[in-house]
Write a structure and sequence with these properties.
mainly alpha, 8 helices, about 0% strand, elongated
Length: about 200
């Protein structure tokens, strides 16, 4: 059991490193100058050059990437290039409670609906309930989360006005993103539960 968990965790390391590399390259190729973002448009040209040199931004991309990965291993996520110049880890931790609340709400939605739907679909095999629930489950596993999120915002937030479009200051601000995240997992779990019961 523990060996399996350890093996899974170790297998995540190259995946995370690869994702960071792709994001790193995309940000490097994106238009804009972090020096201008940090110093503004009215600084002297030499100030931009010194700022980039001080932070190693004139080095080749691979050297910058490996330097960043080495710092991450040490727990240093760097400093924001914005005007605030705040540590990135502090920014992450400031938003972590909202992320945790969103993940827990999505998990509750998934568990609350997935198992009952899967069990009922298996019990009422080939009935109208089974066909409809599996149809929506197929949509759930096929539809990208961001697309479902936009549809929910368009209808329930902009159309009906029942939920806010942004923010995290109230409990109802969590509902739409939690449903967006939990719907795909709920659909997959419902289909898995149904298949397991029918075997």
């Amino acid at each position: 059991m523990w060996r399996f968990i350890l093996k899974r965790l170790l297998s995540l390391i190259p995946v995370i490193a690869g994702v960071i590399f792709v994001v790193f390259i995309i940000l490097h190729m994106a238009p804009g100058d972090p020096a201008r973002l940090a110093l503004g448009d009215e600084a002297e040209p030499q100030a931009y050059i010194d700022w980039r040199e001080e932070r190693g931004l004139n080095d080749p991309v691979l050297i910058q990437y490996f330097r960043y990965m080495f710092k991450i291993v040490q727990g240093d996520f760097g400093t924001s290039y914005g005007r605030t110049q705040t540590p990135v880890f502090g920014e992450i931790m400031a938003k972590f409670p909202y992320t945790l609340a969103l993940a827990l709400c999505a998990m509750v939605i998934t568990l609350l609906f997935a198992f009952p739907l899967g069990v009922l679909a298996a019990v009422k095999h080939n009935s109208w309930f089974d066909n409809i629930s599996m149809f929506f489950s197929l949509i759930g596993v096929s539809m990208p989360t961001f697309w479902l999120g936009m549809l929910l915002i368009l209808y329930f937030a902009l159309g009906k006005g029942w939920f806010p479009t942004t923010g995290a200051g109230s409990w109802n601000a969590v509902i739409l993103p939690a449903v967006s995240i939990g719907f795909g997992a709920m659909a997959g779990m419902a289909r898995t539960t149904r298949s397991s019961m029918l075997e």
